[in-house]
Design goal:
elongated, 4 strands, two-stranded antiparallel ribbon, 14 helices, two-stranded antiparallel sheet
Length: about 375
C-alpha cells in the first residue's frame, strides 16, 4: 500500500507529538540525533525539550554529532579515529537571514491583504480630507503632513515585534540574529511608508497645483515625509519591543504620540524659559516640522491673502530655537536631517538592547546548566 512521507522543519516542541521519527541538528548543520520520537530524551539525557535545544546550541553538540557520524554514517571497514573533530562554530549568514525574514514578512502582509489595503488607504483618505478642509498651503497643512507621517510610521510598526514574541524567542535559540530581524522589519515597513508617501503627496500636489503657492519641490517633500515615516517606524518598533502584548502597545501609542502634537511648537507657544522647550527637542514632530518648513518656505497667510515665510511664522510659537546657536539659511535643513537620523539611531539601539534583554531573561528563566 502506497503512503506519504511528510517532512517538516520546526522549532516548536508540541509539533513532535505528530512525528513518527525526528532529527535534531546541531551547530554547523550536522545531525545530532535521528530516530524514534520517544527515545531522544534518554539519548540526550535530558528531561525537557528546551534543555535539548540549549544543548544543541552549545559547543557540546559536537560530541553528539561525532557519535552519530561514527555510528551511522561511516563504514565500519574504514579506519576512523575516535578523535574525529567536527567544526562546531556557528555559521550564520546574516544576509541570508535578512532575505528570508523579509520574504516571510512580505508573504505575511500579502496573506492578510485586507489589513495591508487598509494601511495603504490611510494615506489617500487623510490627504483627500485635507484637500477638502484646506484651500491653501499654510503651516497647519505642513504640520498635518508631519503628524500623518509620524502616525503612519508608528502605527504600521507598533505590533510587529510584540506579535512575534514567541516566534522570535524560539528562533533565537537557533542562532536567529537580532540585526537581520530588525532590518527585515525596517525594509518592509519603509517600503510600505514610501507607497503611503507617494499617494499622500501626489494628492496634495494636485490639489494645490492652481494656487498662488503650490507644493514646491514635490520630490523633496515626498522624500522628507518618507524619512519621517522611517524614523517613526523605528519609534514604533521600539514601543513594540518594550511591550509584552499588543493591547499594551496600543495603550502606549497615545501617550507617546499626543506629546508630539502638544510640544512641537505649532499648536501651543513654547516659552524660552520653559523646560518644555528642551523636551520638544527630543520629539520627531518638532524637527520634522521645521525641516518641512525649510523645504516649503513659502505659504499663504491663513488670515490675510499674502505670501509669507513658513519658517518665520513658526518662530513666534517655538520660542528661542536653535537658530540662535546655528547660522542657518532658511532653505538649509541639514541640521534637521542629522537630528532625525540621530533619533533613528537611538531608537535602533534601544530596540536592539530591548530584544537582547528579553533574550537574556528567557535564558535565565529556563536556567539550564550543562
Amino acid at each position: 500500500m502506497l503512503g506519504t512521507t511528510v517532512v517538516m522543519v520546526t522549532h516548536k516542541p508540541e509539533d513532535l507529538e505528530y512525528m513518527d521519527e525526528c532529527i535534531f541538528m546541531g551547530i554547523g548543520g550536522f545531525f545530532a540525533y535521528k530516530g524514534d520520537k520517544n527515545s531522544f530524551y534518554s539519548y540526550f539525557k535530558k528531561s525537557n525539550i528546551l534543555e535539548i535545544y540549549k544543548l544543541l546550541n552549545s559547543s557540546k553538540t559536537s560530541i553528539y554529532g561525532r557519535n552519530y557520524y561514527l555510528t551511522n554514517s561511516l563504514s565500519p571497514k574504514k579506519n576512523i579515529s575516535s578523535n574525529l573533530k567536527l567544526h562546531s562554530m556557528r555559521n550564520i549568514n546574516y544576509f541570508s537571514q535578512l532575505f528570508y525574514l523579509s520574504l516571510r514578512l512580505i508573504q505575511r502582509k500579502l496573506n492578510d491583504y485586507e489589513s495591508l489595503l487598509v494601511t495603504l488607504l490611510q494615506a489617500p483618505t487623510i490627504a483627500l480630507l485635507m484637500s477638502l478642509i484646506f484651500p491653501t498651503i499654510n503651516n497647519i497643512v505642513l504640520f498635518f503632513i508631519v503628524i500623518s507621517a509620524i502616525w503612519f510610521g508608528t502605527n504600521n510598526s507598533s505590533k510587529e515585534i510584540v506579535s512575534e514574541k514567541s516566534i522570535f524567542t524560539r528562533e533565537r535559540m537557533y542562532n536567529q540574529g537580532i540585526f537581520p530581524y530588525i532590518l527585515s522589519k525596517l525594509l518592509i515597513l519603509t517600503t510600505i511608508g514610501i507607497f503611503q508617501s507617494i499617494l499622500f503627496i501626489t494628492i496634495l500636489s494636485i490639489h494645490f497645483n492652481n494656487n498662488k503657492v503650490v507644493l514646491s519641490k514635490v520630490f523633496v517633500v515626498f522624500s522628507w515625509m518618507s524619512l519621517s515615516i522611517f524614523i517613526s517606524s523605528l519609534f514604533g518598533l521600539f514601543l513594540s519591543a518594550i511591550s509584552n502584548s499588543s493591547e499594551k502597545v496600543m495603550g502606549i501609542i497615545p501617550i507617546a504620540l499626543i506629546p508630539q502634537i502638544m510640544i512641537s511648537g505649532v499648536i501651543a507657544k513654547i516659552t524660552s524659559s520653559s523646560l518644555i522647550k528642551y523636551f520638544s527637542y527630543f520629539t520627531i514632530a518638532r524637527w520634522s516640522t521645521t525641516g518641512l518648513a525649510r523645504i516649503q518656505n513659502k505659504i499663504e497667510n491663513s488670515i490675510s491673502p499674502q505670501i509669507i515665510s513658513s519658517l518665520n511664522s513658526l518662530k513666534p510659537t517655538m520660542g528661542d530655537t536653535y537658530e540662535s546657536y546655528f547660522k542657518l539659511k532658511n532653505s538649509d535643513f541639514t541640521l534637521e536631517v542629522i537630528v532625525l537620523l540621530l533619533h533613528g539611531l537611538v531608537y535602533f539601539i534601544f530596540i536592539y538592547f530591548s530584544l537582547k534583554i528579553r533574550d537574556i531573561h528567557y535564558r535565565q528563566k529556563i536556567n539550564i546548566k550543562f
